[in-house]
């Protein structure tokens, strides 16, 4: 029987002999405050004390991602854990939408849609204002017109474009007429960009994230949904 705060949650039948059970493992989004094993049967409690061990799952190693790596924990299936603060369905282009809050670590912007049949370029900008002279924390610019095709990342500060970062073209993730999902995760020191659940690039913060409160999209795409969470 499983109890939560003194109330029975569910009953679950034994599927193996109890004497084979030796570990209690707790993982996930919780902070362990206290673990106790209680029983009215003193002998059984002694048996449990002899057989049980404390197991602490090891910390996962820092993952160095390469272009094309799948990052399942950040795929769209995980969106059930986000609470969208903004959601726009089938928005028109050009889009320049003010966010309900400024950008901050832990926030994510998701842009989904379909690439047009004869694409040229499109962009997703995280910027500080509307207009062509607004500063940008991130300019994400897939280019179909170059050889090879590629994705360019950049930023703009005080109306000046900064140094471009070109993503290796051998993993260009966009295809004419095909759907896509871009996730831009704001982390402490960078933006992490995923396309269709696959790592594309990291881009360092070049301006203060707290200045960013607009997402702007235009170009050779048909937009399906914009989410800020």
TrEMBL record:
Origin, by domain of life? Eukaryota
MF (Gene Ontology): carbohydrate binding; galactoside binding
Q: Which SUPFAM superfamilies match?
A: Concanavalin A-like lectins/glucanases
The UniProt keyword set, sorted, is:
Lectin
A Pfam family hit: Gal-bind_lectin
Domain Galectin as annotated: residue spans: 1-38, 95-229
| Name of the protein | Galectin
Please name the source species: Rhipicephalus microplus (Cattle tick)
């Amino acid at each position: 029987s499983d109890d939560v705060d003194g109330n029975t949650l569910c009953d679950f039948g034994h599927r193996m002999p109890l004497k084979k059970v030796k570990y209690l493992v707790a993982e996930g989004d919780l902070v362990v405050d206290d673990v106790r094993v209680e029983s009215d049967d003193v002998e059984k409690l002694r048996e449990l004390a002899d057989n049980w061990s404390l197991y602490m799952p090891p910390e996962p190693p820092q993952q160095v991602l390469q272009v094309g790596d799948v990052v399942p924990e950040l795929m769209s299936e995980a969106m059930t854990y986000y609470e969208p603060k903004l959601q726009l369905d089938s928005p028109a282009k050009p889009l320049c939408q003010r966010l309900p809050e400024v950008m901050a670590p832990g926030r994510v912007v998701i842009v989904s849609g379909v690439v047009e049949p004869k694409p040229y370029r499109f962009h997703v900008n995280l910027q500080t204002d509307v207009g062509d002279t607004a500063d940008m924390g991130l300019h994400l610019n897939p280019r179909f017109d170059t050889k090879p095709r590629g994705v360019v990342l950049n930023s703009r500060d005080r109306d000046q474009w900064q140094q471009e970062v070109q993503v290796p073209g051998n993993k260009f993730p966009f295809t004419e007429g095909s759907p896509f999902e871009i996730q831009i995760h704001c982390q402490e020191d960078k933006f992490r960009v995923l396309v269709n659940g696959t790592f594309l690039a990291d881009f360092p913060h070049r301006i203060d994230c707290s200045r960013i409160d607009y997402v702007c999209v235009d170009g050779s795409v048909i937009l399906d949904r914009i989410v800020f969470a």
